[in-house]
Specification:
There is one protein chain. A seven-stranded mixed sheet has the order 2-8-7-6-5-3-4, with helices on both faces. The chain folds into two domains: about 1-65, no CATH class; about 85-345, Type I PLP-dependent aspartate aminotransferase-like (Major domain) (Aspartate Aminotransferase, domain 2, 3-Layer(aba) Sandwich), CATH 3.40.640. The radius of gyration is 23 Å and the shape is globular. Helix content is about 45%, strand content about 15%. By secondary structure, the protein is an alpha/beta fold. Strand 9 and strand 10 form a beta hairpin. It is built from 15 helices and twelve strands.
């Protein structure tokens, strides 16, 4: 193990040093990756020198998500205390299904859940768990909504006519999860969004009235805190009113921007989300925790037990159910994703997490102001957003993004809204500062001038 740790330290130091000069890894086309890197597996293995060389080359060729040049996905940056927690979780290698196997790691997961539910203003009857990603926490929300509507479904199988509602701008996992849950992709009714990307609550109400008149059964409304492209917040108060009126489960997908919960300055963006039945947040996005750390909390913990609990005498042999989270999880064996987030939260406190969120919104404002001050840009975003969508000089967004990637300049993606395609620049990497945001635009401008 000591030799492995020495190799780890050597390669990590090499990566950190190289990132200072090359914030974007050298581009390797997918059709050439097996030619340029030693990735082949063999019958006899290899010696340690060759192994170390291959591993180092692989690491140095991998996309760099922690540098000030990565704006491509809804995560980024590298926090030292969170990384330390993740490294220790790997060394300890606990599985988080029982207290017997996880010990005090179960307690830190419970501490995280309790503090999140406290921030939502929920009482001690609430609870939650972690899952492999935001798609999986959304899946758990759909399953609980389904079973709350008809508890017999989990025993007898699904029934026809169940309907889920979500914004046309919501995450792609919703129809996929509806298929998994036996509801069906076609029974996810997508509600149009307004000019700012928010679900239109008036059209939602009309859809529910129409579907009920046709004998269908609305079981869940998925509201989004931070849509994937525009980072928009759905009108939670209006949606909560509709859910209360028609007795429909309200789920909030806060994977992207649900962490506004931690900020005194931006919590107003999720006003009404506390009225939901279930709420998700990804600490690996706005809170800078290593992938993955996806959390779902539920207002009434009975739904976790009713949808996911299954007895296994060979497994649950000690301690009360509250300390055996395998009974409320999709998975049995589950890695410890709590320690890295706990380490971050423990080190900077709730106030510090709020400051991370505040900084990202402030960087978004810097980006918007820069775009608005330059007539070569067209802005498609709005205030209080960390998804900055724009076009530059009328050049197709995908052409700029692809060229920047293939020339190893910057990593940034593109998206579309209401038929318009644009560059989607996210300010979610809290490791950046205002100078990094301005430098990004200067780099894009210089690149376009030279290459396009």
């Amino acid at each position: 193990m000591q030799k492995a740790l020495d190799i780890f330290q050597e390669i990590t130091q090499a990566l950190l040093a190289d990132e200072q000069h090359n914030p974007v890894a050298r581009y390797i086309p997918s059709e050439k990756v097996y030619e340029e890197l030693d990735l082949k597996l063999s019958h006899d293995g290899t010696n340690m020198d060759n192994f170390k060389k291959s591993l180092k080359e692989l690491v140095l060729a991998t996309p760099r998500t922690a540098t000030n040049a990565f704006f491509n996905q809804l995560f980024g940056g590298r926090n030292e205390t969170a990384v330390l927690g993740d490294l220790l979780a790997v060394i300890l290698n606990n599985s988080m299904y029982t207290y017997k196997a996880g010990g005090p790691m179960i307690a830190i997961e419970k501490e995280i859940i309790r503090n999140i539910t406290d921030l939502l203003g929920w009482d001690s009857n609430s609870d939650g768990t972690l899952a492999a990603g935001g798609s999986m926490t959304n899946y758990k929300g759909i399953l609980m909504a389904r079973d709350a509507f008809d508890p017999e479904i989990k025993h007898k199988g699904s029934r026809p006519g169940l309907v889920v509602y979500t914004s046309e701008e919501s995450h792609y996992s919703i129809p996929k999860n509806a298929a998994f849950a036996g509801i069906g992709r076609n029974n996810v009714h997508k509600i149009p969004a307004d000019s700012m990307g928010r679900m239109d609550a008036s059209l939602l109400r009309k859809a529910i009235i129409k579907d009920k008149a046709e004998g269908l059964h609305p079981i869940m409304i998925n509201a989004t805190a931070g849509t994937t492209v525009l980072a928009a917040f759905d009108p939670f108060e209006e949606i909560a009113d509709i859910c209360a009126e028609y007795k429909i489960w309200m789920h909030v997908d806060g994977a992207y921007c649900g962490s506004a919960l931690f900020s005194d300055n931006y919590r107003h963006l999720i006003k009404g989300a506390n009225r939901a039945d279930s709420y998700t947040v990804n600490a690996h996005k706005m809170l800078g925790t290593p992938l993955s750390c996806s959390i779902i909390v539920v207002k009434d913990k009975k739904h976790l037990h009713e949808s996911f609990s299954n007895d296994a005498s060979y497994l649950y042999q000690t301690d009360a159910d509250d300390f055996n989270p395998g009974k409320i999880s999709l998975q049995c064996g589950r890695r410890n994703d709590a320690l890295k987030f706990w380490a971050l939260w423990k080190s900077i406190g709730t106030q510090g997490l709020g400051a991370l969120v505040d900084k990202q919104f402030r960087l978004g404002e810097v980006a918007r102001n820069y775009i608005l001050s330059n007539s070569d840009y067209t802005l498609y975003s709005f205030d209080d957003s960390i998804g900055i969508c724009y076009n530059y000089k009328g050049i197709p967004a995908r052409d700029i993004c692809t060229a920047l990637y293939e020339k190893s300049e910057l990593m940034v993606g593109y998206g579309s809204f209401h038929g318009t395609e644009f560059i989607r620049f996210v300010t979610i990497n809290y490791g950046n500062d205002e100078a990094d945001i301005i430098n990004y635009f200067k780099q894009v401008e210089a690149f376009v001038e030279k290459e396009m």
